[in-house]
Amino acid sequence: MGIKDKALAYGKKFKLDSHHAIERFGVFFSVFVLAGLIVIGGAGASAFKAGNDSLSHTALYTEKFETSKTSLKGDVDGVYTNKQGDKALVMMHFSAKAQISYNAADYQAYLLGSDEDLNSEDVTTGGIKGSFHVFGSTGYVGVLLDAGEAFDKQVLNLTIRANAELSHDEHKQDQSSADEVADDATFSKYDQWRVFFNPGATGTTTIPALDAVSFDPAQAYYDVVLKAEEKPIRDELDQKLIAMRTNLTQIQAYTSDLETTKVDGLFLRPPSVPMSIADDKITGVSAAEAKDGVSTLTLETNYVVPGGFDLNWRAGNVYDGYLDVLVPSGQSYVEFLSKKPSEDSDSTSQQISDMNWTLSNGSNLKSDYQSSDVTMRPLTNVMNNLSQAYQDYAKGKSEYQSELLLDLLRLDVKLRDVQSNGSMRDDADFLKTLY
Hints:
Layout: H1 3-13, H2 21-57, E1 64-66, E2 73-81, E3 87-94, E4 107-114, E5 120-121, E6 129-134, E7 140-146, E8 155-162, H3 186-189, E9 191-197, E10 205-206, H4 217-260, E11 281-283, E12 298-300, H5 333-339, H6 348-353, H7 365-368, H8 377-421, E13 423-425, E14 431-433
Parallel strand pairs: 2-10, 4-14
Antiparallel strand pairs: 1-2, 2-3, 3-7, 4-5, 4-8, 6-7, 6-13, 8-9, 11-12
């Protein structure tokens, strides 16, 4: 049987010849329908799985908010939980110029459940208690939820109402809120904003403040806000110490050059160094040099620049309190800091500029020789190199002790604002929950 005959035989067997067109169409149609069902079913399963994954992992659905009547804008920093997952803190902050009440008693909240389409439903986690926290005058506020058991993986709809309106938006008084959900007229009647979040999701951030025996708002503010602001300052301090150590190494090398660099037998004698930097040392190792990757660089000095501070910042943090080890007994930190700007200016730079550069024959390189004298250029170069190294070190030390350390202390002042002026509302009427 030839190839052509075999092809015709297979065609008749599987009804692929011209006499079975209708039957063949039905077979192909059934195959396409079945394939379509498999594809659609697979897509549906993927969408369902994606929805479940989102519900499992996504903690925050609202990153920004705007109050419904006064149009005050703000950001939701995140959803923070404890290790057991039965406490959740929703942290928010208003824009810098927002006029809000700093009294927690002026706020109340409503908690509903929500499906993934943001339609309201009952809250599935039972026994939730809530409290509202105003973190001093920082503009930060937070709602703390305590469930007593791990939160279910459910999107929650938290509406916060400000009963004290300290500002108004004349263009919005007669308009419905952009944040208002259908059929909720309260957003037109009251100044409110709404946050959707899922405290049972794996995407929450755990913070030490929520694992403490009792909740300390100042520690929560440190964990969420100040710790992130503190790290880059500490990194800058560390980098400044590395640069200062390099300057001291340069000073040592250029001082050695004084003995070996000569012109016709003449050489420079070591200059008298200002007492403000004369005995300074940078001890320890950098993070790159340390086996454990932890820097131990430390400035050892007997002189603090005017307006500066002598602070072992590695030994503590903002929450532990830097000011406590600096402020003299019987003096307030406000008084201590207010006096710093009035201290005498640092004269180290000028003292370096006025150094006497005496040659081995007793003459002065700067006053007895012209700067353009090419014969003395080797000595002039050594003088300039050493002088510049001293200037660079003195400038670095001033920035380290006054500017960078002051930046750390400013964070300490922010924390004290929270500790002194923070307020809380935790009565039974603060939070209404729909079960």
